[in-house]
Protein 1
Amino acid sequence: KEGKALSFVAPFKGLSEALVSLQ
């Protein structure tokens, strides 16, 4: 379960990090 949740959150985490790097 934890691995599944992590794989679901990972894309959003990467997206937020990308937005921060752009600013």
Protein 2
Amino acid sequence: MHRFIVAFLAAFDSVIAAAVGIAAVLAPLTLLWIFGFGGSAPWDVLWPAAVSVWQLGNLVPLHIRLPPEYLAVAGIGESEAAFLLSLAPLAFAGFTAVFAARSGARASRADAWMTGVVVGSLVFGGLTAGAALTARNPVAAVHLWQAVLFPTLVFAVPALLGAVVTEWREAGSGLIARVRDRIEAAPRGWGEAPGMVVRGSGVVLAGLIGVGALGVAVAIILGGGEVIALFEAANVDLVGVIVLALGQLVYIPTLVVWGVSYVAGPGFALGAGSSVSPGGTQLGIVPGVPILGILPEQQSPWMLLLALLPLALGAFAGWVVRSRLVAAGPSGEQTSPPEDRPWTADAEGEHEPVSARLGIAVGIALVSAGGVALLSWVASGSLGPGRLADVGPAPGPVALAVGLEVLVGAAILLLSPRRRGSSPEAREADIDVFAAVPVASPNAFELRAAGDADTARVVPPVVTTEPALSEKPAKKQKPAEKPAKKQRPAEKQTPVKTPTPAKKPRAAKKPTPASAASTIAEPDAVTAPIELPGTSERPSPPVD
């Protein structure tokens, strides 16, 4: 694809990502302005309010300063009129990141990933700068450099990751393809390590997000009554309920990350001095937001078993990676183990080095811990003045807990020895052994009737030996025994049926050069088929 087309599509993706994100806020605010205020409020406040919410969703902190008239109505002190709001509704950042990753992957498939990533990021940065300059909000002020840099990074980093991952997997030429080929050529199983680490950590992170989402869903079901009670206590009309529900809906991804930290063990905080974890819950004054009604008030010691879920995810990631290693072999080559050695852990290390498997397990744990630390950082911040300035999970403890749990689970599956039958080399060795066993002809034993049962003739077996693929010459076999003499027929003869011609014995496989030479030197190495009397195609004379 032409680079100009790639650049145009990348710019279009960035425009769509920014426009859809802002429109998702502007639409409900417009409905609130129409049905809530009857159109009497100034409409020019809609754009600054929508941009401020979108900026908060893309990790831009807002410096809130409440007006004096609001302080008098709400009864808030002057010391609490100004605070920092930085707890981001991650639904906006998640949408931007997914859109950017798709744009980067498409640019990579068009062989112009650098052009797509750079153009898309620059256009998105220009749009964020324009929005920040045109939406000055006296209530929610932002620093201009943060309003431009943070949303641009939210777009640029996933776009770069999507392009690099796609280029690593599919590209046949280019800088990343050369680096990949050089790494994959590393000896002793280290060539597959980067890809296996990314695959395993992706399994762990996806599983943790799924577990966190499941935990939030269960908490909403169990705490639904408390959530409804808080909605009723808010005393808002239908429009207010809709706006309040939409505002909480965009915070669902943030709650999912809180669920991940809860399952991992450290939990999260809902204000200074508070803690919500499987080991116990200590809550102070909780804001009257309905969704916070799902927080557990009491804990059970059985909740500590939730820490086994990250360990199980690490074990599953180790199993996935181990299966790929068994199928590919070291550097993608299939090798056979020595014939004179049993399949033990030491013999297994020649095919899958222990050092490489240990490095993969450590890499999966580190990448998973880093990903969880990043998610915990973006899902924490300030929700208000005073003690509400510390809300969310702490990145350090959560990353440490997840890293250790995943490391234990992955190491169990990656470092444990396999049984012999599960190895592809062992199966190939078994096939070689069975290939060297002599195979008897299907017509080796034949009982032919020539009158009564007393006059039956037994045909000696004919054995065809398939030469094994080996450099040793075939041993000389003993000559076949002479055929038995024809017995005298009985006095009363019965009509003899025309015998069915015997099937030809299975031809031997084509020998290797070494075995072929031995066959020429010893012509009787393979026994020729024996022609029995009366088996010719000449018809038998009629019996009087």
Protein 3
Amino acid sequence: MSNASGQVSGQAARQMANAIRVLSMDAVERAKSGHPGMPM
């Protein structure tokens, strides 16, 4: 996930960004307000 310099690899960064997107879409759905595509 991170190397000796403390930086996150590209693949790990993409996975984290995708997880945030999915959680954002779920939050919109749960709130029943807004469009689920908005976080994209």
